[in-house]
Amino acid sequence: MSRKLRILLAGPLPPPYTGQEMVNYWLLKTDLSKHHDLIFLDISTRRRNRLRGRLDLKNILASLRPLPQFLKILLVNRPDILHVQLARNRLGFLRYSIYIVAAAVFRVKVVARLGGDHFDLFWSNVGSLYRRYIRAVLQRVDLLIVEGERLKNQFLEISFPEEKLAVVYSAVDASSFDPGSAIPRSNGRLQVLYLGAINKAKGALDLLSAIPAVVKEIPEICFIFAGEVLKREYNLIHLDNPPDLEAEIEKMVRNYGLQDYVQFLGEIEGDHKIRMLATSDIFIQPSYAEGCPFAPLEAAASGLPLILSSVGAMPEVFKSEENAIFIEPGDIAAIGRGIIKLANLPQMRKKMGESNRKMISED
């Protein structure tokens, strides 16, 4: 009987609940350990989203803390494959690259996964010395996973071999989420849910700008923002936030007169998140860049119609008008039109939500 492959999965677990943590969470819930000898090393820094990516002493020390255990596993357990993630910022890339280089020294095959888009912009905005380092690290990657066919293009400039690129879409367990029809709405108002980091890159400011036109047409509506306000964007450096994002949001709410229409919950998780999805009517994520994020998949599993930017893998995963209304990033008028359309067409919302629930359940 042949020996099982020994796979070392080195990555963070939630909290916080971002894409990289959720990938590892769902991988550990699969049957991977039944078919292979799986070793998991939690390399979480346990720092909040707003602090991650920042080049400071606490982040550096938190990143280095798991390394002795990692080296011990390489020496004692002798894994065949390392699965680790990549990042699109200086500190994040440096952090994960140490694992890749160490594994290569021990002749361990490396499978790396990049969540998101615009690695090419990260590449073009670092100095020549760091670029050489990035290229040297990527040469030690045997397979690089991206979250959609469209996301392969971000490695063209770096000349990463296409035969080493693989596409693996994100997935969620539909049974973990309840269709919205099972739970009645509490206030009788149509509820639009934004779930994720609150920053410019995710389109939060564009959504706020679109709300005045929406409430003029649909007064009985409310908008829930569930997520942590990120003061600085470390990955999409071409889309930096205003100097004081929280103050900017408060100013927009005040100037647009949105106090009765918007609510900010902060970061939610577990049953609270499941209930918010179940009690909402429309899900929206008007991002400027994405890979294959979990929030729209969770919303689809909850039977919600979607409004999404046509970025990343979203147009590959969801069909226009059948699963989602697609908009171009930054098109505030289109955001408003999409919300008004779904608000005025309950049958379309119902049909789209049922299609989404079925798609997630079958996949």
Walkthrough of the structure:
This protein has 363 residues and is an alpha/beta fold. 39% of the residues lie in helices and 16% in strands. The protein is built from 14 helices and 12 strands. The protein has helices at 19-28, 32-35, 57-64, 67-76, 90-105, 119-124, 128-138, 204-217, 245-256, 270-278, 294-301, 314-317, 332-344, 346-362; strands spanning 6-11, 37-42, 81-85, 109-113, 143-146, 165-167, 190-195, 221-226, 262-266, 282-285, 306-309, 324-327. The strands form 2 sheets. Strands 2-1-3-4-5-6 form a 6-stranded parallel β-sheet, with helices on both faces. Strands 9-8-7-10-11-12 form a 6-stranded parallel β-sheet, with helices on both faces. Strand 11, helix 12 and strand 12 form a beta-alpha-beta unit. Helix 8 (204-217) runs parallel beside helix 9 (245-256) and helix 8 packs across helix 13. The longest helix has 17 residues, at 346-362. The protein is globular and about 65 Å long. The two termini are 32 Å apart. The relative contact order is 0.12. The model has no long low-confidence stretch (mean pLDDT 90).
Please give the alpha-carbon distance between the first and last residues: 32 Å
How many β-strand runs? 12
Unreliable residue stretches: none
Name the shape in a single word: globular
Q: Layout of helices and strands, plus pairs?
A:
Layout (H helix, E strand, L loop, with lengths): L5 E6 L7 H10 L3 H4 L1 E6 L14 H8 L2 H10 L4 E5 L4 H16 L3 E5 L5 H6 L3 H11 L4 E4 L18 E3 L22 E6 L8 H14 L3 E6 L18 H12 L5 E5 L3 H9 L3 E4 L8 H8 L4 E4 L4 H4 L6 E4 L4 H13 L1 H17 L1
Parallel strand pairs: 1-2, 1-3, 3-4, 4-5, 5-6, 7-8, 7-10, 8-9, 10-11, 11-12
